[in-house]
Design a protein that fits this description.
5 strands, 3-stranded mixed β-sheet, alpha+beta, globular, about 80 residues
């Protein structure tokens, strides 16, 4: 579980310790972080190098408003330069 003291949000990552549920990402499985500013290119370059490049999203909205990186299992992280709300 990940959170910030006093924040109104948290992120919980879960796993299947028995391995009965294999990962099956789709193009709509996105973790979106609204940063309110462009992502640091040095950081994203390192991520892209590990991931083998950027992962164009299926929805052009995310291409316009951020960058998308896939993890080794194929799940995608969008770093949006928009803010929320």
């Amino acid at each position: 579980m990940l959170g910030w003291p006093g924040a109104s949000w948290h992120l919980e990552l879960v796993a299947d310790p028995e391995g009965q549920t294999p990962p099956a990402p789709t193009v709509e499985d996105l973790q979106v972080l609204y940063r309110g500013q462009p992502a640091d290119r040095g950081l994203t370059s390192a991520w892209w190098a590990r991931a083998g490049g950027s992962s164009p999203p299926a929805n052009p909205y995310w291409e316009r408003w951020g960058i998308t990186i896939a993890d080794p299992d194929g799940y995608r992280l969008v770093l949006s330069h928009r803010s929320w709300p």
